[in-house]
Amino acid sequence: MSINIFFVIVLGGLLAMFGYFKPLYSPKQNSDDVPKIELESFIVYEVGVGGMERFFEGKKGKRFSDRYEVSSAKFSDNSKSLFESIYADVAHYKDNFITLSGNVHYIREDGLEFRSKEGTFDQNNSIIRTQGNFVITQKGNRIDGTKLYYNSKQDTVSADAVRGSYQLN
């Protein structure tokens, strides 16, 4: 057997192995789905002229080019007249808009609380929405319903299938 035939067979075997074990992804794969930063047990502070305005914390977070995804999320806002926090099992934060799922809990400094399984929070307009069931409580008062729309700037609420218990003092 000549040495040329030997090298052709080895080259053919190497090319066959390369073809068989070649990676399945292409170099043109969408890089937006790859997190730029991954954090565990973190707090992100937003400091303004008047001090700490907002902070965002969670157990595990991923920052993509256009959004954040956080588990065990807590978002707090100190830039308004009343300090407010919103908790959820999972939060997707994009363009000052937070989509929440799993054990959503909103708390305001004056004692107002809101609970639901899902919801959205528009940070710019201070609007909370939910499509499913919700419960709002404040100082012994309770409101149950579905499809909540709550504007905390204007202190207005609208909802469907509302049932409430209000204590007069």
Keywords:
169 residues; mainly beta; lipopolysaccharide transport protein A fold; ten-stranded antiparallel β-sheet; 10 strands; 11% helix
Summarize the entry for a quick read.
Helix content is 11%, strand content 58%.
Structure description:
With 169 residues, the protein is mainly β. The chain has a single domain, classed as Lipopolysaccharide (LPS) transport protein A like domain (lipopolysaccharide transport protein A fold, Sandwich), CATH 2.60.450.10. The protein contains one helix and ten strands, in the order αββββββββββ. Strands 1, 2, 3, 4, 5, 6, 7, 8, 9 and 10 form a ten-stranded antiparallel β-sheet that branches. It is elongated.
Summed over residues and divided by their number, the pLDDT gives a mean of 86
What is the tally of helical segments? 1
Number of domains: 1
Total strand segments: 10
Helix content: 10-25%
Name of the top-level CATH class: Mainly Beta
Measured by DSSP, the beta-strand proportion falls in over 45%
Radius of gyration over alpha carbons?
A: 26 Å
Q: Given the helix and strand composition, which structural class is it?
A: mainly beta
Please outline the major beta sheet. Answer: 10 strands, antiparallel
The CATH architecture designation is Sandwich
The general outline is elongated
Segments where pLDDT lies below 50 for 5+ residues?
A: none
CATH T-level fold name: lipopolysaccharide transport protein A fold
> What's the name of the CATH homologous superfamily?
Lipopolysaccharide (LPS) transport protein A like domain
